[in-house]
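lol forgot to send this yesterday, sorry. struct tokens for the thing we talked abt
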């Protein structure tokens, strides 16, 4: 799928991916595939009039390659509309539309799961909706046409979820290629497991240890400087059949660290400043996932007035792990007690302590305000702490607490491929 990239500072890319969901791609691409998403079936209904949008609509998004989209709109219980969206050239899995409204001739639609929105205008004859699809900073034109039984595109059946790796397997990478990354990046730009292909981009040894052992970089002590500065691109394939679980992925990385980096360490306890995540007074605001599977998809993209974190099929430990590896400067302790998997988004304005001091937002233009608009400050997203409370019903506070640390005994630069 072509990527419509954002020109953000190379030091920290806004397109960072921590995508472990098989078939879930998280990026700033104009359209995003959800190969395991499920939504209730929608039946096409004959329109009451040319200005009723309850029907089947279809159109082609020109995004490097042509992507056919289908939108099935039905009447909602409260007199409004509800819908199901398909990208039939990217797996044709149904996505529940979060909101769709017709106001006069203006049509607005939102799909929070993939960070997508559509704004269009219904034609006077009711046959087309001419508008723009947005899933990042660069909207793309999209014209939806009312389908007829003769013109309607066939929606293929969704692909079945991949067969999981056996729970009693002793997983390891059959092949692992480690190459230096000299791009100048100062943070990990991606860690993915797509099907049976594991990959990282611009990951330091500290990043790999943090992910494999679920710790923050400040919990790694006694390490040589190069562990945090030298970066690698890694490609690997498991020896065992099936799609690995998150824990099986961590086990394989741990074995690779031992075999290729000769890593040995011991555990210890230290009093460190940490963030503690709890549920706010009003309860949490998380939606159960639409995705089938055991692996999460986590990513970032530009949001309204800031950065949007997009979590798909994620647990709270998945979320706190992402925060402490890529966003925050200290460990994050989960005390929410929340179980299960959720789809949710959080949009915030980073401060100087986050992302290693290298904000993924573009710098303000010379002689102008941040974001390039006069009212940029008025439209800025809240801080991460306020956004968690307002958007997710979660509270994050700083406190000093005893945490486990990994004390490095021995480590070497990676052996040859």
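and heres what i got for the seq, position by position
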């Amino acid at each position: 799928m072509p990527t419509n990239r954002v020109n953000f500072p190379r030091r920290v890319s806004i397109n960072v991916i921590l995508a472990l969901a098989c078939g879930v791609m998280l990026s700033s691409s104009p359209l995003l595939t959800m190969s395991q998403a499920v939504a209730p079936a929608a039946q096409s209904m004959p329109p009451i009039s040319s200005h009723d949008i309850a029907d089947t609509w279809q159109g082609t998004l020109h995004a490097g390659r042509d992507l056919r989209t289908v939108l099935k709109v039905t009447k909602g219980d409260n007199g409004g509309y509800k819908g199901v969206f398909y990208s039939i050239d990217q797996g044709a899995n149904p996505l529940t539309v979060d909101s769709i409204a017709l106001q006069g001739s203006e049509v607005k639609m939102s799909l929070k799961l993939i960070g997508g929105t559509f704004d269009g205008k219904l034609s006077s004859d009711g046959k087309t909706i001419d508008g723009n699809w947005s899933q990042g900073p660069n909207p793309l034109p999209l014209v939806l046409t009312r389908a007829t039984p003769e013109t309607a595109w066939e929606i293929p059946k969704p692909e079945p979820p991949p067969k999981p790796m056996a729970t009693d397997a002793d997983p390891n990478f059959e092949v692992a290629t480690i190459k230096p990354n000299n791009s100048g990046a100062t943070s990990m730009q991606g860690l993915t497991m797509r099907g049976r292909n594991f990959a990282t981009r611009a990951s330091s040894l500290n990043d790999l240890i943090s992910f494999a052992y679920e710790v923050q970089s400040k919990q790694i002590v006694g390490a040589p400087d190069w562990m945090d500065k030298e970066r690698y691109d890694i490609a690997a394939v498991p020896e065992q059949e099936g799609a690995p679980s998150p824990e099986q992925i961590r086990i394989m990385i741990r074995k690779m660290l031992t075999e290729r980096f000769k890593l040995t360490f011991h555990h210890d306890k230290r009093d460190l400043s940490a963030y503690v995540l709890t549920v706010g007074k009003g309860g949490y605001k998380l939606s159960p996932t639409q995705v089938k599977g055991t692996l999460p998809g986590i990513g970032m993209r530009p949001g309204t007035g800031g950065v949007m974190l997009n979590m798909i099929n994620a647990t709270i430990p998945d979320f706190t792990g992402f925060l402490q590896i890529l966003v925050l400067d200290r460990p994050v302790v989960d005390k929410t007690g929340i179980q299960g998997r959720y789809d949710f988004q959080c949009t915030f304005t980073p401060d100087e302590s986050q992302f290693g001091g290298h904000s993924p937002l573009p710098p303000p233009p010379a002689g102008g305000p941040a974001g390039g608009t006069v009212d940029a400050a008025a439209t800025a997203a809240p801080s991460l702490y306020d956004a968690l409370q307002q958007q997710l019903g979660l509270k994050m506070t700083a406190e000093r607490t005893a945490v486990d640390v990994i004390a490095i005994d021995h480590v070497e630069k990676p052996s040859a491929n």
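The longest strand covers residues 394-410. anyway ping me if u want another try
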